[in-house]
Amino acid sequence: MVLQPPARTDRSVRAATLTDPGAALLVEALLEEYTRRYSAEGAAHELASYPLTDFAPPRGALLLVEEGASVIAGGALRRYDEGTAEVKRVWTHPAHRRRGLARQVMGALETEAVRLGYTRVFLSTGPAQPEAMALYRVLGYRARDGEGFDESGRRRYFAFDKPLSGAP
Predict the structure, then answer these.
(1) In the chain, what are the domain boundaries?
(2) Contact residues for 91 (Cβ-Cβ < 8 A; gap 6+)
(3) pLDDT in tens, 67-124
(4) What's the confidence (pLDDT) of residue 52?
(5) Which of 76, 98, 149, 151 has CB atoms 3.0–4.6 Å from 55's, for a disulfide?
(6) Which pTM does this prediction carry?
(7) Residue 39 to residues 15, 34, 43, 58, 90: CA-CA distances in angstroms?
(8) pLDDT, tens digit, for every residue of 27-58?
(9) How far apart are alpha carbons 130 and 128 in whole angstroms?
């Protein structure tokens, strides 16, 4: 018989405001992550292209996963078009990866998207994030072929979308 450790009961998912210290921590952690994977210039450009104000209610949301008093994961959504939410900023603290937190964040974001009246989710991820691409496929996201290339034909990003179940 294999004994499993007890489930954590102090983990919660909560909505955050733009001025929430947890939101600032998420952005800071993403800047470090994107800098490591891409470059400082690319990371700064990505974060500046989608400011936190894009994720404000009533058409957006910023969600944080906390364990005790620590932010260990998070993500956000914003309006992409009338019926489509765009998911951005999905992140898990490196010490907490491989525990299903990104899946939990995605589930919470999809639920919030339905609550906000969206019927689809669009998202994109960079070529240096293969684990994100694998997760999105497992969660039922379909690759949008032919999208994500620059004028020279170089791959800039991978795009995915998914219809939301339970959507009106």
Answers:
(1) 11-163
(2) 26, 29, 30, 33, 73, 74, 75
(3) 988 889 999 999 999 999 999 989 888 888 898 999 999 999 999 999 999 999 999 9
(4) 82
(5) 76
(6) 0.84
(7) 30, 7, 6, 33, 18
(8) 788 788 878 877 777 777 777 777 888 899 99
(9) 6
- Of 52, 67, 66, 113, the C-alpha closest to 87 is 113
Residue position matching structure tokens 């910023």: 62
Distances (CA, A) of 84 to 38, 48, 68, 114: 28, 22, 33, 10
CATH: 1.10.1040.10, 3.40.50.40, 3.40.630.30, 3.40.50.1820. Which one for 11-163?
3.40.630.30
Amino acid 142: pLDDT: 94
Quick check: 52 and 94 in contact, CB under 8 A? no
